[in-house]
Amino acid sequence: MNYARFLTAVSAARKPSPIRMLTELQQRSPPSLISLAGGAPNPNTFPFQSASIQVKNGQTVTFDEAAMKRALQYSASNGIPELLTWMKNLQKNLHNPPTASYSVEKGQMDMCVTTGSQEGLCKVFEMLVNPGDNVLLDAPTYSGTLAALQPLGCNLINVPSDQHGMIPAALKEVLSQWDPSEVHKPGSTAPKILYTIPNGGNPTGASMTAERKREVYELARQYDMLIIEDDPYYFLQFEKPWAPTFLSMDTDGRIIRTDSFSKILSSGLRIGFVTGPKPLVDRVVLHIQASTMHTSTFTQLMVSQLLHSWGQEGFLQHIDRVIEFYRIQRDAMIGSADKWLKDVAEWHSPSAGMFLWMKLKSVADTQQLIMEKALEKEVLLVPGGVFMIDSSEPCPYVRAAFSLSTPEQIDEAFRRLASLIKDAL
Ligand SMILES: Cc1ncc(COP(=O)(O)O)c(CNc2cc3ccccc3n(O)c2=O)c1O
Q1: Is the pLDDT of residue 24 over 80?
Q2: In what residue span(s) does the Aminotransferase class I/classII large domain sit (predicted)?
Q3: Does pTM top 0.95 for this prediction?
Q4: Domains and their CATH numbers in the chain
């Protein structure tokens, strides 16, 4: 793959930070090295001495004095080694990426830690998207992605989708306006990236079938596009076997995958990952060097200690407990929707994630209904317009999250929603 053609001028211009390189060189060197180089503060001046964090299974994550000094200090921009290694082993175990054994030039699988997958998405978009670029995605989509993409001045092209995700025939139709043999010509306006949320989509709850992923991948190959696989709900798939990921079928090195611990370990700790071809991950890391420098060392070490004590088996057992929780929540929401809303709304039951996407049958645009009437009835959902490429277009959908409220609260919320819809008719 020729990765240079995908980079913006800004990303291509980024150079390694000499200071950061010295820090990482020092951290790789034996203790006998005396460094007068890094402008790092002396951790002996820090007020924090140690920490002990109770884990619900009875284990404890401890930071003794030495560990605390490391946790409170700068660390490598791509992530602390032990967390990166653990995650790379998990990715290889779960997805068996073809790129894991490739040379760097061929797109060897690499990873970096990001401050939430939101940071990963933002930096990947800024690496790849120039003003005026055509970018493919299936709308409605995550509002945080729109917030990161639209200010870049690109042209977002919607690829029609349904409850099974992006529709390959629709993608083929959208792409038919370009000649695949001319996408590398200077001045070509053919899209270079496609973004999708393959599991438990936000806001639709849609999950792509393996067959559709293979068809989309083939089209990306024909038009030499990168696919950004934003997959924070991968671990919230209620049925097994989990769907094969784009990363697992990436024989070309054209997948950039973002993962997140937000929905399974903690959203406040802000731990996400970018997995992709080393030439591209390196560019994201250079951007991290020049912006946040790295994700919090303390939170990385805290999570890394937990993962190492759990092992992959323990981690996946935790995931099974999380899945069971959200399955029960999903069933409660579907039960209450059937009970209160089946005359006034329609929906598909999600097989992953934490969202139910409902179309209100007799409402052209839910914005006013939700932002005014629903608040009067003390029930809050998200009007569907915020997830559309053009948020000013009327949208009859609402997004309901089944993550936080109890089944009883969900039932009462839908009773209130049904009441306000009937009042509005
Ligand atoms: C598809 C997709 N990709 C990336 C992210 C970012 O997750 P990160 O790893 O935590 O950075 C998300 C997080 N989605 C949301 C976050 C959120 C945070 C506060 C309040 C509301 C929020 N609502 O509503 C959300 O949907 C997502 O859904």
Answers
A1: no
A2: 60-417
A3: yes
A4: 40-69 (no CATH), 70-179+189-311 (3.40.640.10), 320-424 (3.90.1150.10)
